[in-house]
Amino acid sequence: MKDLRRYLALKYIQYLVLSSSNAVSTLLGLLGSVYTMILLQSAKVSSKSTAVLISSLAQADILVFLSLVSDVVLGTFGVGFSPAASALSRILLMANTHVSCVLLSCVAFEAYLITFLPSESRSLRTVRNARQISRVIWMLVAAECALFLVDDHLRASSASAPSHGPLGLLFQLPSVASALLGSLSYILGILLRIINVYIYYKIFFSVSPR
């Protein structure tokens, strides 16, 4: 449907084109996600695997809404600038970005399969597989967020943490792991941008009239 294609274009611009989010793109993304979730209630649309991925993409913006709500609530109680409040808002936004980027790449890959391998990939492009892929993505990002939350908590309590011995090494593991994961996420983000551009470049020239 044209509305879903417009929504995907908006999300690609928001997460894979713009270098950072801003108030305008965030607001448009939230409104587009609300409209898309309503649109996907149609049985005709929701029966497709691509629609399952798009539905999960729209649901990811709930994290943005929760981040905004947490900022307002914590700010109302005078703790909006505390490290804990800042970390919570940042991690919610990070989770939204990572889930959205990976799901957008899944949609692009499925579009590639539909264009170039329609019959060969039919058994892979099922609603069940799409739901499983969405669950795996959410679980991986949730584990990533948990690691960053543990690291932030240990940093906040570093004054009372042991600095030597086995316990000291144990307290340093989350910090090292989160640093490595942050570097990996940055590299993966660049690769996803390149892969998405290549996929849609191939699709565009394959369907353009010669």
Automatic annotation (TrEMBL):
Kindly give the Pfam families that the UniProt entry links to this protein: 7tm_1 (PF00001)
What topology in the membrane does the UniProt record assign? Multi-pass membrane protein
Task: Indicate where this protein resides in the cell.
Answer: Membrane
Annotated keywords? G-protein coupled receptor, Glycoprotein, Membrane, Receptor, Transducer, Transmembrane, Transmembrane helix
Q: Name one GO molecular function term.
A: G protein-coupled receptor activity
The record's listing under SUPFAM superfamilies reads:
Family A G protein-coupled receptor-like
Which residue ranges traverse the bilayer?
Answer: 12-40, 52-79, 91-115, 176-201
All residue ranges annotated as the G-protein coupled receptors family 1 profile domain in the record: 32-210
Recorded protein name is LPAR6 protein
Q: Can you name the source organism? A: Certhia familiaris (Eurasian treecreeper)
